[in-house]
Structures are given as structure tokens and as C-alpha cells.
TrEMBL record:
This is Amino acid transporter transmembrane domain-containing protein. Pfam families: Aa_trans. GO terms for biological process: amino acid transport. Coiled coil: none annotated.
Length: 496
């Protein structure tokens, strides 16, 4: 008689000890908030490069690919079984469990390069929106072509960088959760304003007649022939990839879901709903913008000389972009800050500069109004102050050297979409299907033969993202050995 295997993990062994109340609808909202961002500003230009036939088809194709790989990644939330296995709380933890140490290094490089590239793109986009606010108001007062209506972008990049320097010194983003809420609200604000402006221009200027061609924008001049057209098409594909990238936060979203039902089933439904709504919105905005502007669609629908009136509505949309990027910048920068500070602290663990923390007393006007309350203080860590300042200054400098909105978005999308959204999820799922599970047994009478608790806990400790220090490598090797012996025990019992 054949014995069948099942996986049974208790909460302690699986590391699943925190309360989760998320539902399919909360996960759907998180996905929409993560996907919809500054990439929507380039959708009209993107469809213009691809044309009426290829443009919508590529948007639908990226949507299908993203949903398929998201479903694969949802099954990697638990290890080794997608329903009862140990929990992986972060994307890189799932890669560590399923693909091993080498792929963790590759995944980390792809993830952090993508995060840093996003910071560069956000700096460029925010400064462009600041310039647009000044220019639109100047044109409203002085008329088109007024003197002093074309300010320098570098100045506004420095202003944006200085503001990020202040926010980066806050203790934690958990203490300013309202910033993320405001960022999400403003992202929807400028997205729908952009859609409304494009629809109004299309209907008001052309009477509902669609502009554009089936093959997309044609470049005039022999010097800008097929090579330039191919380059713009590749940039358009990169922009779409950037607009659909959310794999690096999918595991974190799934970690908010309650069970039962199984988290992977709920996450697959949420991915279907979220990506479906996002794709419909992308098609509406991209096609409406192309119908309104034709082959002359600007690279950034809000800053590329597309709209000047009503000036107040254009200002509101650009201010929404700025506020959204202020919050989103910190969300993407925090993992980089944490990694850099962790590496430096591990390299020089006893350095006074690394471990020092100073407390500055706030002036009475910023302290509590109660006279009996102790004076308020602010913790200042030299390591955090120096490292974060250097990173933001370097990011701002690179943004000043690369002030090309579409090119930067395309580069970020090209660097991040394939490894994070396609390769690692697909490869991890294939490894899970090929690998025999470390599991418990159910005998013919239905009695569970479970691995000993200490082996279950060690299995989770090896795969849940805990980083081993050099002095602990021998202990981890011993753990692997015991787990291998546990596998031998299972194999010896799994007989017909």
C-alpha cells in the first residue's frame, strides 16, 4: 500500500506567530497601490511608439505574464508546502529557501539595483513636476513664451534631495504611516486627473476622432530612421515593464492575509482582480492619450507641454505627483538604508562611530505642553546620518546627469522586470515541483508521523531568512546534516 505525505507545521515552528487580518480586497488594494505610480504618466507616449495594434496587445501581454508569475510566486510564500509550510516573510527569503545562496546574491543585486534606480527616476519625475507647476503658472500670467518661464531642473532636484535628507533621518516609517496613505491617495489623484484631461482634449479638440496610426509614431529624417524607432520601441517596452513591476512586494502583501482560506489561493484572486483593474485603467489612459495627441504624445503627460489650462487642475495634478513621490521615495529607500547600515555594522561591530547614538533635546516650543512632562529628545545616530546623506546626495547627482524621464523608466523596467517578476518566480516554482518535500507522513491508518519539533524549527530557521554570522556556520552545517538525516528517515518509511 502506498503511503502519502502531507506537511504539518505548527505556528511556532513555521514562524507564523503574528495576527493577520487581510482579505482578498485589502490585498487587491495593496496591489493596485503598488502598481499604479509615476509610470502611468508615460503610457500615452508608450502607446504612441507601438501604435494602435501593438500597444494595447503589449499591455495585455505584460498583464498576463505578470499574473502568471505572480501566481507562481504566491505558491512560494510557504516552504516547502504552499499551504502548510513555513512562512517566508520577504521576497528574498523565498528565493533563499527554493533556489539557494547563489541565487540570493543575484536576487539581492537585482532587487537593490532596481530600488536605487527607482529613486533616481523619482527624483527626475518630482523635479519635472515642480518645474511644470512654476511654468504653468508663469504661462497663465505672462502668456506662452513668457520670460523666466523655463527654470532649471537641477535646482529643483537639489530641493527634492534636501527634503528627502530630512525625511530619511526619521526613526522609522512605521511612525509616519500617514505618509503612505497620503502617497497612495495622491497617486490615484494625478492618475485620474491625467485621464480626465486626455479625454477632454480628445473630445473637445478632435470631436471624438482618434488620432495616431496602426504602426505607431514615425520619426522624420534619415538620420533618425529605423535605429531611433527601434530604440523608442524598446524604451516603450521598458516603460510598460516598469508599470507592471510589483513582485518584490508581493510576498509582503501576502503576509498580511488571514488563513483559512489558504494564503496562496487568496493572493492569486487578489492578483487577478488587482492586475485586471490596473490593466483596464492603463488601456484607458494610454489609448485616450494617444487618441488625443497622436504621434506627438509627450513623454510625461503632465509636464511635456501637453496641458496649460485649466492651470489650477494641472497644478493640482503635479502637486499630487510631488507628494506621492516624496512618500514613495522613502518607502523604496528604507530597504537600501537598512542593508547598508547592516553591512557596515557587521564589518566594524566594535567601532564607536557605528554604535554611537546621541540624544538632542528639543526646544520647549516643540516639546509637550505639560510642564510635568520630561523634555522631548531626538535620537541621532552618526552612522545613519552619514550613510543616508551620502546615498541621497549620490542619487541626486546621478539624476542631474540623467534628466531623461522615459529613458530612466525604461532602464529601470528592463533591469527589474525579468529577474524579479519572471525568472525567480518561475525558477523557484520549478524547483519546488522537482524537489521532494521535507514532510510528515500519514500511515495507512491515518496517523501522522511528524518530524521532531527541533528539526521543524531548525528547518524554518535555515529558510526563514536568518543570516548566519561566521562563528555560527558550523552550527548551521550541523542543522543541515540533521535535516538530511530526517529526510533519510522519511525516505526509509515511504515504501509501498
Amino acid at each position: 500500500m502506498e503511503r502519502r505525505t502531507t506537511v504539518v507545521y505548527d505556528a511556532e515552528a513555521a514562524g507564523d506567530d503574528h495576527e493577520r487580518q487581510g482579505t482578498v480586497w485589502t490585498a487587491t488594494s495593496h496591489i493596485v497601490a503598488a502598481v499604479v505610480g509615476s509610470g502611468v504618466l508615460a503610457l500615452a507616449w508608450t502607446v504612441a511608439q507601438l501604435g494602435w495594434v501593438v500597444g494595447p496587445l503589449v499591455l495585455l501581454g505584460f498583464s498576463c505574464v505578470t499574473y502568471y508569475t505572480s501566481a507562481l510566486l504566491a505558491d512560494c510564500y510557504r516552504y516547502p508546502d504552499p499551504v502548510h509550510g513555513a512562512v517566508n516573510r520577504e521576497y528574498i527569503d523565498a528565493v533563499r529557501c527554493y533556489l539557494g545562496r547563489t541565487n540570493v546574491l543575484l536576487c539581492g543585486c537585482a532587487q537593490y539595483v532596481n530600488l536605487w534606480g527607482t529613486l533616481v527616476g523619482y527624483t527626475i519625475t518630482a523635479s519635472a513636476s515642480m518645474i511644470a507647476v512654476k511654468r504653468v503658472n508663469c504661462f497663465h500670467r505672462e502668456g506662452l513664451g513668457g520670460a523666466g518661464c523655463n527654470p532649471s531642473g537641477s535646482t529643483y532636484m537639489v530641493v527634492f534631495g534636501l527634503f528627502q535628507l530630512l525625511l530619511s533621518q526619521l526613526p522609522s516609517l512605521h511612525n509616519i504611516a500617514w505618509l503612505s496613505v497620503v502617497a497612495v491617495a495622491t497617486s490615484f489623484g494625478y492618475s485620474f486627473i491625467s485621464l480626465g484631461l486626455c479625454a477632454a482634449k480628445w473630445w473637445g479638440t478632435h470631436g471624438g476622432a482618434a488620432r495616431g496610426t496602426l504602426a505607431g509614431a514615425a520619426l522624420a529624417g534619415a538620420a533618425r530612421g529605423d535605429g531611433a524607432k527601434a530604440f523608442n520601441v524598446l524604451l516603450a517596452l521598458g516603460n510598460i515593464a516598469f508599470s507592471y513591476t510589483f513582485a518584490d512586494v508581493l510576498i509582503e502583501i501576502q503576509d498580511t492575509l488571514r488563513a483559512p482560506p489558504a494564503e496562496n489561493r487568496t493572493m492569486k484572486r487578489a492578483s487577478f482582480y488587482g492586475l485586471g483593474m490596473t490593466t483596464v485603467f492603463y488601456l484607458l489612459l494610454g489609448c485616450t492619450g494617444y487618441a488625443a495627441f497622436g504621434d506627438a504624445a509627450p513623454g510625461n503627460i503632465l509636464t511635456g507641454f501637453a496641458f496649460y489650462e485649466p492651470f489650477w487642475l494641472v497644478d493640482v495634478a503635479n502637486v499630487c505627483v510631488i507628494v506621492h513621490l516624496i512618500g514613495a521615495y522613502q518607502v523604496f529607500a528604507q530597504p537600501i538604508f537598512a542593508r547598508l547600515e547592516s553591512c557596515v555594522a557587521c564589518r566594524w561591530p566594535d567601532a564607536k562611530f557605528i554604535n554611537a547614538t546621541y540624544y538632542l533635546r528639543l526646544p520647549p516650543c516643540l516639546s509637550s505642553s505639560s510642564s510635568r512632562a520630561p523634555p522631548a529628545t531626538v535620537a541621532v545616530a552618526p552612522l545613519k546620518l552619514v550613510l543616508r546623506t551620502i546615498l541621497i546626495m549620490f542619487t541626486t547627482l546621478v539624476a542631474m546627469l540623467l534628466p531623461f524621464f522615459n529613458a530612466v523608466l525604461g532602464l529601470i523596467g528592463a533591469l527589474g522586470f525579468w529577474p524579479l517578476s519572471v525568472y525567480f518566480p518561475q525558477h523557484a516554482r520549478r524547483q519546488a515541483q522537482d524537489r521532494p518535500p521535507r514532510a510528515t507522513l500519514v500511515d495507512a491508518a491515518g496517523h501522522e508521523l511528524r518530524l521532531p519539533p527541533h528539526l521543524r524549527r531548525r528547518q524554518h530557521r535555515l529558510c526563514a531568512g536568518h543570516r548566519a554570522q561566521p562563528q555560527g556556520r558550523r552550527a548551521l552545517q550541523d542543522d543541515y546534516g540533521q535535516l538530511d538525516r530526517g529526510d533519510e528517515l522519511i525516505n526509509s518509511l515511504s515504501v509501498n
